[in-house]
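ok trying this again, last paste got cut off
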Amino acid sequence: MSYELREFDLSALMELGNIGANHAATALSKIIYEKVELTSPSMTNIEELKENIDSSSIACTYSTLLGGVKAFLLFVFPEEQAISLSNLILETNIERKGISELEGPPLQKITKVMISSFTKALEEFFGKKTFFTVPLYVYGKFNVLEELLGRDAIFFCIEFKIKGEKGCNLILSLTKDDITKIMETEVPEFEEFGTFGEMLGTFDKLLEIENRIEGLIQNKVPYKEIKSFLRAVDEEVFENNPLKKYLEEALVFVGIGEKIVIKRREPLRYEVIVESCNVCKDLPDNNKKSCFTTNTALGRFFRENLDIGNEVIETHCIKTGDYACVHLIILEQIDVLSYLYEERDIKILKFLTENPLNFDEILKLTELSKEEIESSIKVLKYYNLIDNQEEKFEITELGKVFLTFAENAPEKSPVEYDENWNDVSKIEELKDTPVFEEEKAPWELNEQTK
């Protein structure tokens, strides 16, 4: 059965080629006593190879991999390097014009060692013995490549550089049948995931979720909405809070789960209940809590978007037989208190530092409305900033510390927010936006200051 390739699969296949190529480069370096550098693997085709490889005269060695992994390996040497490497192996320094049969045996010897290292790397990864045919040698113009490679395959090209100059090109050619065999092979270190293809499928889904999480982090929530969320101490008010409803909808949009409910359990503690969790659904059944991606997403959202320190703990998981995946969020008290207060809260606390007061006394002294006082008292009591004894309200020790902090805290800098901040479609727009500018290397900074 033919395997349908996804973009993520191509990246994984290129990385497999890269692993093998690094081993091959190490082998070549030991032969020639020179540092060998590699370019990143790139997917290519015959037309692109024509442009990138000097077609005037080339030497090629090629071999077929068999057994655990099936593939076709081709090494392409430009004329100058083919002659130079041949002289090195033959321990001669003969000047000659053009490539000939003379370069065959030494290049075959070199590439046999390189292919052996390449296949050993794949053997270690897949845990299956892989063989290769004796490298064959051809030389001539570019058309020899077309005859060897054909067109019904995918090509990955990696360039080997010796002393900064092109040493050779390694071309890994995979047919559809070769790819299907690789994807259906189990990887010993990840055998609980099933085949290599199934493992990639799981990682691909998680990667897409993580990409959208970046959009969730960057879609900034307005200051007033964070305050409203933290002050929503009544159950009904909390259930209809805009930030609470946005986060539930956004986490579903990101792909965390099919249904998500956020509950306020006690001051500074919230529960996120994920039903039909997508994060751990395709992970192995190892009887362990497995929703690390969700834990990280929630922690980052509160820390990086809302600017509230926190700890997130997965308390329940469907992988351990629970009804849902449940995450407990514990918020940093100082960060919460720095957000939630209103001026009327401070006014009430100041009067309470002098004497305990009943509701009517607070009403008379503060000149606030009854509704304002009721609202503030609910919040202050909920966060243990005041207590009431025999119908009198008094400030707690925490309330005194908080009052000192609030009176001396600098004003928060105004930040521009999109008025449509709770539109979850913005997450998709922002997911590929870099968060930080790429940090420049010290030598690049020095160049700028010259």
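PB: full thing came through this time. The domain at 341-408 is CATH 1.10.10.10 (Arc Repressor Mutant, subunit A).
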